[in-house]
Write a structure and sequence with these properties.
With 291 residues, the protein is α/β, with parallel strands linked by helices. 45% of the residues lie in helices and 17% in strands.
Amino acid sequence: MASLVRWLSVCPLRLLHAIGALLGWVVYLLSPSYRRRLIDNATLAGVGPAQRRAAVAEAGRLVMELPRLWLRPAAQPIADPVRWEGMDRLEPLLADRRGLVLLTPHMGSFELLAQSYAERFGDRKPLTVLYRPARKAWLRKLEETARARPALATAPASLAGVRLMIRALRRGETVGLLPDQVPPDGQGVWVPFFGRPAYTMTLAAKLVQQTGATVALVWSERLPRGAGYVVHVTALAEPLPERHAGDDEAAAMAAGALAINRSMEALIRLRPEQYLWGYHRYKTPRQAAPA
């Protein structure tokens, strides 16, 4: 397996994306549960058949571009073209002395997004990203090695990881997380996501509210035929609700999570074919009460 991953890491991006599109369809056809989940989730969001088919291939491309990103030497720049759009939005946030929270859904090349930010802006505001360690030991070791890069730190999805992120924000640095990732029991609330209750993390809103950090939405669009990527920077679709002394804690957490879900929905609707519809977004975490 390791030899195959190393070989893939030096293949051209166009070839990797072609193989990935095929891989996406193989998994889709061979896994009834994955196929059903992808169709159900995409249909719930109003995604039509053509965009669902495109999403099947895009999911495979996401997987196949990882070796090229993960095994790139730490001192070597990203090999493929990356263009940033929305710099008029990002520059004031980088200049601000407060911390910055970057939110992105499971959309486009979110692995490239972290590396590209660290490479381009890490000397101004280093980045700490939240991640959930893989279950398989060899993959977990590969992830940890691949993500250890200049100006890019990782924080596990645990209480210790949350503390690392809070400290980074209080130093005026940047943190990044995927707010549509299903959190463990006790770290989320049930709020609608495309009209269906989804267990949604409260961490994203809490980081902003507790540290006074600024916030932006980002996502990395995968261009066709291996032409590279475009990173888009936008504002939240609606402001996060303010917290006041005496507010009901449960209601405040739900309001913050719902506001972020709405922003994620607006972003995903821009390019639904690049969203990871096969992700188990509506699962109930172990020991959590059902919706």
